[in-house]
Amino acid sequence: MNTTQQQYDPSFMLRSLFRLLSEMDWWLLSVTAFLTTIGLMTLAHTQLAISFFDKQVAFVWAGLVFLIICWRVPYFVWTQKAVVPVLYGINLGLLLAVMLKGHTALGAQRWLAIGPITLQPSELAKPVVIFTLAAWLGRRPIRGFFDCFKALALIVPPALLVFKQPDLGTSLTFGAIYLGMCFWAGATATDILVLLSPLLSLIFNALNVQWWVAYLVVLGAILLFTWRPRNWSWLIRIAMVLVVLVANAGLGEVRPHLWGMLKDYQQKRLTSFLNPYADPRGSGYHILQSLIAIGSGGVAGQGLGKGNQSQGAFIPERQTDFIFSVIGEEMGFKISALIIAAYAIICLRALKIAYQSREEPIGSLIAIGIMSMFLFHVFLNIGMTMGIMPVAGVPLPFLSYGGTALLVDLSAIGILQSIRFLNPPPRQDVWR
Question: What is the three-class DSSP state of 110?
């Protein structure tokens, strides 16, 4: 039987279909379907948001098409030398266009209308940053601490443009993706601590000066004994630690000036979660209403469409940033716990795919970048609704209303499938 005859042979087609289905990661697809369904159910029963449900259904269908395309297109196409600079340039162009002709809503200029389509380029920037970093780090793994700064230069332009919109949450997402991929590419845990230290210095300086001084002392001790002891002599290590401490101390001193660069509402969002009762009708309103909603849901919830806080419109942005509060009130702790478990499964499967494809660095790095993106979004969004993280305006993957974000999330699942398909786990052919 020649190849053409074989293609139309029913048994051959069934075997091909079975092989295709057996190489899919069904855990990923199952939990993605679960989360998307919960999101649609919540939007369908949220009063005054029926139009959101109809649009979200259309976005889901479009997202499924994107998922299949990203699954069937080999993932390494996106990181080819002839492709990734084009994607990077187009993305910067879209972010610049947002600043010039973007649509403003809720105090932020984030959306861009291209004909009948409205896009949020900052969401598209996330996979582009992942592809760019994977292409760079896959070919130039981190051998020394200063290699981290070469990769950092790649994310600074899109991060600054997104920060200017302003979109602090997405800017921080770039940082989370960068740190996760640098660690996977060879940076040590101490390198990551050094890269994070400026942010930690700002936070401790803002909270309490004594805590900040103690932080500097502890940081210096950790770096002195653990920072690349095999690469640097004691003399070089002491010099490097002093440079880091001086930089952190200087950053703490100029913190008031940096703080002034943020918008008023951003300053209030970043501080209100520490004590939302200080301004219950103003900056603390979002968090307090969210806590009331989640607490009143109990174990089983009040029922879909029956939440007092949700349906009474006490929860702001309940179809996007605070949709987890609606779920907590109306579906209760049981479904909320299942949702958190579903996100944990997605991150663990992405980590497993990254580990299985470690012989192919670019695919492995893309998987880690996607895992970092999902992990940071979930931690920040759910932490925000529970009052342990600042309100940063980050959507909850697969649940929050939003076309561009949903398309990016479903495409990311398709890319993970592509990495797994082309780097399958070893088969157990020998039975013992």
Answer: strand
- Residue found under tokens 């051959």: 12
140 three-class SS: coil
pLDDT digits (tens, 9 = 90+) for 308-321: 887 877 877 788 88
Q: Two tokens at 155?
A: 């994310």
Place of tokens 């089983």: 300
pLDDT per position as a tens digit, 345-363: 999 999 999 999 988 999 9
Cα–Cα nearest to 265, from 168, 185, 351? 168
Q: Which residues pair with 139 in a beta bridge?
A: none
* This prediction's pTM: 0.89
Say if strands 103-105 and 117-119 run parallel, antiparallel, or are unpaired.
Answer: unpaired
Q: What is the DSSP code (8-state) at residue 25?
A: -
Hey, which of 132-141, 228-237, 293-302 has the most confident mean pLDDT? 132-141
Matching residue, tokens 């403003």 = 104
> In 3-state terms, what secondary structure has residue 157?
helix
Q: 94-99 contacts: CB < 8 A, separation 24 or more?
A: 94/119, 94/121, 94/124, 95/121, 95/122, 95/125, 95/158, 95/161, 95/162, 96/161, 97/121, 98/122, 98/161, 98/165, 99/161, 99/164, 99/165
DSSP H helices in 164-272: 168-184, 189-207, 209-226, 234-253, 255-259, 264-272
Run of H or E including 45: none
